[in-house]
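Retro notes, item 3 of 5
We never archived the inputs for the adenosine monophosphate complex last cycle. Fixing that now. Sequence and ligand:
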Amino acid sequence: MKKFTDPAILQKWCANQKKKGNKIALVPTMGYLHEGHLSLIREAKKRADIVVVSVFVNPVQFGPNEDYDKYPRDEKADWKKCREAGASAVFFPTKENMYLDRHSVYINEEDLSLGLCGARRPGHFRGVCTVVAKLFNLSHCDIAIFGQKDYQQAQVIKRMVRDLNFDLEIVVMPIVREKSGLAMSSRNTYLDEDMRKKALVLSEAVRTPKAGDKTAVISKKCIAKIEKAGLKIDYFECVDGATLVRSAKIKKGDAILVAAFAGKTRLIDNSIVK
Ligand code: AMP
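Structure as it came back at the time:
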């Protein structure tokens, strides 16, 4: 497995792989890898000859009062997990070589990123779109794999690919959960046992709304349940799965999305209405 830290060297290597006729899959991550990330790498391996995993805690997608500095990092463990999952190359750039002095070009998606996490985390999707576009260009990928765990992110990236004519395919993989039902997340490492138990209410809440339910009524119930469990709600929304516009009445294909604080840890989860 190859290790790259310099964007230019990665880009050259990937271009060379393309010349040889290899299909390249990219799996962008912020590291501290868990089974959710590994499911993406394994899927990438099934679909391409070369799998490039990026491990980069992207400063541009964090707000000033968010957890950029204390976001968990473990390069050694990530390296081992990538190798075991079958990656061909891992890209561990530094923020200095991803964002050169006077970096001044960013990508703004101006529809799907306005609500939900975009409304609570100003600048978040600007950071996500910018770094993902850079990773697409660096990896020459034919396909990029994302998780449904970040539902809004996946929709925003798909829109960016469509609107900016990136010549690649986006694949979105299901949420991998702990046995308990808790959606796997690098941030779960912040939770103590008590909080982990309390946080289970999120996966229960996103599965509660059913087709035909009135959004206002069911949302109120779910929010009350989450707060009663001891979490602080950030948002609970029932939206059309494609447009992310709030549904008055829940229908098949809608996305039920939640963000809530378990202590200081912000957790997200979602499910699609059957
Ligand atoms: P992150 O490292 O949290 O930025 O996530 C990198 C990629 O892994 C994103 O596409 C996430 O949606 C995906 N991912 C994170 N957690 C999970 C999970 N529990 N199941 C599936 N994919 C996930």
